[in-house]
Amino acid sequence: MAEKYRGIIGLDLDGTLLDPDKVLRPETRRSLEKAIEAGYCIVPVTGRPFGGLPAALMEIQGIHYAVTANGAAIYRIDDFTGGRWHTIHEDMLADEKVLEILDFLAPYHVIPDCMVEGHGTMPAWGYEAIGQMGIAPPMAAYLRSDRRFVPDLKEFVRQHSGRVCKLTVDFFMKDGGAALKESLRGPLCAMGDLNVVSGGAHNLEITNRTAAKGLGILTLARLLDVDPGRTMACGDDGNDLDMIRRAAFGVAMANAAAEVRQQADYVTDSNERNGAGKAIEYFMELMDR
After folding, report:
1. 131-166 pLDDT per residue, tens
2. Do 25 and 66 fall into the same domain?
3. Alpha carbon separation from 270 to 27, 31, 175, 255, 279 (Å, rounded)
């Protein structure tokens, strides 16, 4: 980690850096490249697992770090396409807690999704069930392409002891999913020492309390010897609140949830109008003043 960066720019993916079709637009890419050339550390900060990072983003020359699973796993990337990357920070859920949550969820109409070693893992029936969740086709396509599907998720957890960094609960939005999501949030929080946040209208994301996006950015700042006062975070949903609060400059997208916009230092344009790119360029201007 010999690089010396002028600052860290942490960017959520879905609803922020990627447009509604899950595409990194050319004008946004140009803003990223401009920031990298200026000496900033561009960092995807996402609820996705490592395997869900889009190649179109990670192949950009100069992106060397990623905060995944809402801060539970941080990676150093030397060559994304060549498979040269390694974990530099992990915060794993206890097996007993994961199994307790899976037992709790069993009676409900939800899809559990355990993130293990850079990939999400769902029960086998989840592949077809994704199509019934009522989510946008690009999100459904992403889930089907990235997830592994196993016959027995609890047995999979036991076989990969100590390797679950995040557990996501996916809801069926056309079948009372929104109400069920809110009714389960409290009991899940009550299980103790957990962060339970929304990563999108269709899910809840569960990590240890010590794993969050903002904590991930500050951990990386410490490892890279970057002044926390030169950090930016940009996001759109509940799982982005921690980094928007903790970063020196917290940015909400115009398409962000109301709570996120209210707590941000600055509200940029939407993810349909290069909002992330505009925020990056404004942050660099602020740092140069």
Report:
1. 999 999 999 999 999 999 999 999 999 999 999 999
2. yes
3. 13, 15, 29, 5, 10
